[in-house]
Amino acid sequence: MSLWVLVPISLPIFTLPGIWIIYAMALHNQHVCPVNNWVYNSTCEKSLDLQRGSDLCCTLDNIPLISKCGGVPPESCWFSLLCSAASFIVIVIGLLRYAQLIHKHTNSVLNIEGLFAGWLCAAGLMIVGNFQVDHAKVLHYVGAGLAFPASLLFVCVQTLLSYRASETHRDVQIAHLRLILTAMAFTTLTLSGVFFIQESFVLQHAAAILEWIFAIIVLVFYSSFSLEFGSISSETLAAMMTKQDGATEEGRKLEKV
C-alpha cells in the first residue's frame, strides 16, 4: 500500500481537532458564545470578554461561526496556521486525484474542473485564514465566497468522476458514499446561506451550526480518497507528467502550423 493514503487521512485528523481547539480557546477567552446558546440580544452593557459569571449577554457579533472563533488573537494565530496547512493538503489531494484519474485513462474536462475546484477551495481557505473577518471583512468574505462554493463544486465533480471511473463493486460503493456526502453538503450549505441572511437570531445561530456541519462533511469527503490513494504509485505520477509533456508538445506543433 502506498504512503499517499496518509495524505487524505491527515486532513481531517489535523483539521478537526485543530478547529475544535480554536473554538475551545475562543470560548475560554469569551470571544464567542457556546453553540448551545440560542439567546441573543441587540446590544449588551459590556462586551462579552468583559462579562463575568455564567449568565452571559450575547450579540450577533458573538455567534460561533468558524471564522468568528478564529477572529482575534490568540485564536487567530492558530486559525491562520491551520487554514494555511489545510489549504496545502487540499492542493496535494487535488493533484493526486487528478493524476490518479489520468492513470486510469479517464481524463476529461471534468477531471480538470475537479482539479481547479480543489485549488480554488485551497485559495479561498488561505484567504479566510489570513484575513480575519473583524479586521479585513471584504477580503475575508472574498475568501469565503471562494472556499465554500468551490468546496461544494469539488465534491459534486468528484462524485461524478467516481461513478465514471468505477471499475469494481467497491468503486461503486465509494461513489455511493460520496453521493450521500454530496447531498448532505449541498443541503447544509444551502440552508446555512439562507439562514445567514435572515434577521432572526435563531436562524443565524442555526446557520453557524450548519456551517460547522458542512465543514465536517467536506473533511470526511476528502478522507474518502484514502480508500483509493493506496494504489497510487510512481507510474501514476509519471502518467500525469507524460500527459503534461504531451500537451506541451501538441501546443508546439500548433504553433509551428
Short description:
This is Transmembrane protein 150A-like. With 257 residues, the protein is an all-alpha fold. The chain is 70% helix and 0% strand.
User: Structural class, from helix and strand content?
Assistant: mainly alpha
Overall morphology: elongated
| Sequence stretches where pLDDT stays below 50 over 5 or more residues | 246-257
Cα(first) to Cα(last) distance is: 46 Å
Please state the average pLDDT score: 88
**Cα Rg:** 21 Å
| Helix-strand pattern | HHHHHHHH
Extended strand count: 0
How many helices? The count is: 8
Tally of distinct domains: 1
Helix content: over 70%
Fraction in beta strands? under 5%
Largest sheet: none
Main location: membrane
GO cellular component, one term: endomembrane system
Domain CWH43-like N-terminal: 4-231
Subcellular location: Endomembrane system
